[in-house]
């Protein structure tokens, strides 16, 4: 199965988000609306992207007591988001509450299906030394694997993790459990900005990632359309080679 290309709409206005969506939707499978865009423009931006024909990953990383997260999940379910995320470290009760809330709200609103819920594991900006300073285990791979397994037990559809944990997650959760990988860089991974655990599109696809999330390498390219087309082409080529 070919890894999907998800574009991080890391912009601060709806006009830019809509422009990128219209320009790149032939190559981008899902458009990610994160904290920057959502806090600038609010829920209406989700509708704008949907109106352009884009599937939406609403990346707000909920993490609170179960009742509060359930209420937030109901709200974003009504918005029509295709994917949403919550932090695995919020615990099993919170994750189960989110799954139940999404299903109930989708049914209540007459939606064909509830949004798929992903668990945030270890952010790609965090490395093993930071985990140790936080008082957690010193190996991100083991922690991601444990949280992925817990998320699956709670009924979630997948996790967000770096490419370095894809194999471990698939080993314990199976091939159909979604692994969405940010921290994607083109060519040399030495240009990692504020990311620590990074990789290339080809590496992610070869490891079996379900989707890669790409932002700056496309948005800051001289020709964003050509950049998106090249990445999508690389993903399709890997699928042919496997």
Strand order of the largest sheet: 1-2-3-4-5-6-7-8
Low-confidence stretches: none
What's the CATH superfamily, by name?
Aldolase class I
Q: What fraction, in percent, of the residue positions are helical?
A: 40-55%
What's the total number of strands?
8
| Radius of gyration of CA atoms, rounded to a whole number | 17 Å
Q: Based on the structure given, which CATH architecture is correct?
A: Alpha-Beta Barrel
Number of domains: 1
Discrete helix count:
11
CATH topology: TIM Barrel
Distance between the termini: 9 Å
Main pleated sheet: 8 strands, parallel, barrel
Overall mean pLDDT score?
A: 92
N-to-C series of helices and strands: EHEHHEHEHEHHEHEHEHH
General shape? globular
Structural class: alpha/beta
CATH class: Alpha Beta
- β-strand percent reads 15-25%
Can you offer a commentary on this structure?
The protein is α/β, with parallel strands linked by helices and 242 residues long. It has one domain (4-241): TIM Barrel. The protein has 11 helices and 8 strands. Helix 4 packs parallel to helix 5 (92-108), helix 7 (140-153) runs parallel beside helix 8 (166-173) and helix 9 (201-207) runs parallel beside helix 11 (224-241). The protein is globular, with a radius of gyration of 17 Å. The N and C termini lie close together (9 Å). The mean pLDDT is 92.
